Amino acid sequence: MSSKHFIHDPTHLVTTALLSVPHTNPSVQCDIANKIIYRKPHAPQVSIVSGGGSGHEPSFVSFVGPGLLSGAVAGTIFASPSAEQVRRCILHRVPRDKGVLVVVMNYTGDVLNFGMAVEKARAQGVEVDMVVVGDDAGVGRAKGGKVGRRGIAGTVFVLKVAGALAARGASLKDVTRVAQLVADNTVSIGSSLSHVHVPGRRDPEEDELKEGEVEIGMGIHNEAGSERKKTDLPGLVKTMLSHSLDTADQDRSFSKITEKDEVVLLVNNLGGVSPLELGGITNEVVEQLANEFKIKPVRILAGTFMTSLNGLGFSISLLKVADTGIAEASVLELLDAPAEASGWSAAISSSTWTKQGDVKQQEEQATSEEVQPSNLRVDPNLARSALTSALNRVIEVEPDVTKYDTIVGDGDCGIGLKRGAESIFKMLETAKSSDDLLIFLNNIIQVVEVSMDGTSGAIYAIFLNALAHGLRQNAPSSAQPVTPQIWAKALESSLQALGKYTPAQPGDRTLIDALYPFIKTLSKTGNIDDASKAAQKGAQETKGMKASLGRTVYVGGEGFQEVPDPGAHGLAELLLGLSDGLKK
Ligand SMILES: *[C@@H]1O[C@H](CO)[C@@H](O)[C@H](O)[C@H]1NC(C)=O
Fold first, then answer.
1. How high is the mean pLDDT of the chain?
2. Contact 106 CB / ligand 1 (< 6 Å)
3. What is the pLDDT of residue 249?
4. Bridge partners of 100?
5. Beta bridge pairs of residue 295
């Protein structure tokens, strides 16, 4: 993983990150000397304490707050805090009167240090329980050997449920029992494309993953997983889910989740996956659970809950919902309950989740909307052949437009135009022929609006809509063929409408340099042949113009001297094609 960081000194990094927590949540305080985040004084309840090495944020310090943790103790990056830090948290930073539950993940250092602190607190007469979470199914029993199962993202289920139950005034006995119940019913597995780089440390060079390789079961501190392989996302998710759910696999079979169970799914970002990509991953997991395992989770959480610094990976956790035996405090209610901790990002309420099945999905909207007929008549065959000629021309010149746009823009202009043209051709195959110009035009507009995106898509769509409006305003009172005069008036008004949304003027090196002379010439001469030649001339003259608008401005470069503006060129060719088609 990249060794680029904004903060390189690991001590400074951990300290400043801890200091940031109270900035974003005024209900918590920071004991920086002991790296403890803890709640300000509040109504008595069982205290929940957790923690571990830094680098897993928002776990655990950003989970401190009403409804979740009472206190969290941080170590240096990937290293357990000391027993003394934890002892201070239990004895001095959280209320002890109703008892304290300590939840840690199953790592040797954490279990030893938190365990020692628990013993010391007990020796002082405090009622303390400890739950150790080992939800990881990434490495099977045989390979895991003595190391045992580690704790990973499924731990947040335990913290959240215990925190919510404690906030409701439950006893330590109940909170501990339910926390253990959740821990026992949770299974997780992670996978990563790369090891993470720890700020301030040298990159380990030898065992870096190769391009296209993913490590299945990798831990949250770069621990080795069970295998490395080249696979795609569906293949990866398939392996991860079968490691988590296959009860026939003697080596793992850590969970006994079946299709009859209520299941909660967490898809967790290990820190370096874009939210966009995590969305795609989540959808893949949900679909495979449904199709391969007949499991439709009753809750789906996706986001960043427990990271491995900026780890380029994700983990899947599954929680089988078990009966807490406490009225009004089911696992789901406790999970859904709001928590005022800055790191808890699951926002959907119980009632929203349970209502989801009640409301029938809104019927798909009819794809084509009713268009008011008009008096503007066209010869449908001529209109079709002119349009066909124009679109063919656009498709033909796509390589040129793309080439120009690669030089002065971001290279997508030609493809965008071509996609629009092809979509209109598709529409023509099925659309009913009509001699009403506005119906014909509206069919085109609907295609342009959905098939062309980006700036040029928007400009074409605005322009064509304004053109339709202008035509309707200039329509005669009885059915008549459209005249060049009506076209010219409508085009003038749509050019004006376009001006409301883009400041582009002739000379700015945009498609306006072709559109403007086209409309002006058509107004003056009423001759489309002359007008399209004027558009062509206008487009050619953009060579050497400096762009003052649009993406070309940022892209810069030298090539603008030699090539016309791609958008103007594309439009001019379209208009030339249109004019040709009308001659036939
Ligand atoms: C934690 O790991 C130890 C070995 O270090 C193992 O014996 C134990 O079963 C594990 N605990 C859990 C809760 O997974």
1. 91
2. yes
3. 74
4. 47, 128
5. none
Q: Parse the chain into domains and list their residue ranges.
A: 10-176+324-339, 190-320, 376-583
Residue with tokens 């996609």: 419
12 counts as catalytic? no
- Joined together, the tokens standing for residue 8 give 């390189």
For atom 6 of ligand 1, the residue with the nearest CA is: 148
Residues 85-129 have pLDDT tens digits of 999 999 999 999 999 999 999 999 999 999 999 999 999 999 999
In 3D, which of 400, 426, 427, 395 has the Cα closest to residue 411? Answer: 400
Looking at 126-253, list the stretches that DSSP marks H as alpha helix, in order from N- to C-terminal side.
141-144, 155-167, 172-184, 233-245
Distance of alpha carbon 285 from alpha carbon 293, whole angstroms: 11
DSSP tag of 298: S
CATH (one of 3.90.1310.10, 1.20.1250.20, 3.30.565.10, 3.40.50.10440) for 10-176+324-339: 3.40.50.10440
- Distance, in Å, from the CA atom of 68 to the CA atom of 94, rounded to the nearest integer, reads 13
Q: Do residues 538 and 506 make contact, with C-beta atoms less than 8 angstroms apart?
A: yes
Residue 406 has pLDDT above 90, yes or no: no
Fold of 376-583: 1.25.40
Q: What integer is the mean pLDDT of 286-308?
A: 97
Q: Is the CB of 484 under 6 A from ligand 1?
A: no
The protein residue with its alpha carbon nearest to ligand 1, atom 14, reads 134
Q: Which residues are annotated as a binding site?
A: 53-56, 110
Which of 195, 221, 243, 569 is the catalytic position? Answer: 221
pLDDT exceeds cutoff 90 at 330:
yes
Q: Give the architecture-level CATH label for domain 190-320.
A: 2-Layer Sandwich (3.30)
Dig out the tokens for 151 from the structure: 């704790």
Alpha-carbon distance of 270 to 303, in angstroms, equals 9
Ligand 1 atom with least separation from CA of 146: 4
Q: Which residue has the tokens 């796509």?
A: 398
* Fold match flag (10-176+324-339 vs 376-583): no
- pLDDT band, residue 205 (cuts 50/70/90): low
In the sheet with 227-230, reading across from the earlier edge strand, the strands are 227-230, 213-216, 186-192, 313-320, 263-269, 299-303
